[in-house]
Amino acid sequence: MIVLDACVLIAHFDENDIHHGRAGRLLAHLGVQPAIMSALSRAEVLVAPARAGRRRAIEDVLKQMEIDVDDLPGDAAGQLAELRAHTGLKLPDCCVLLTAERHSLAEIATFDARLARVAAERGLVVRTGT
To answer: How far apart are CA 42 and CA 71, in angstroms?
Structure first.
């Protein structure tokens, strides 16, 4: 299973994003591997489409891509606070990390160097599409 950081899908949907081609290659290499993202990451992906009146269209594409959403558990606030305090990552990145750690053997797909470094330090496999 792969946990997708919002930046991968944001780049995928924005042809002008510097990582657009990289995102397409990364997603293509994932093949049939199950993909999941935190609810907060999904919200981040939907911000620009919402501004453009395309939120529902992008949600349909995400559904077609079979990307599941991992809702935060009831005790997520404390876990996220611990991750933020000990890693220095921003809360959206902590959500990605928490999602991966909750799913044993999960990998993370991201273009964020800090998130990639922390995830690797915590024993997670990181895919950056390079």
So the answer is: 10
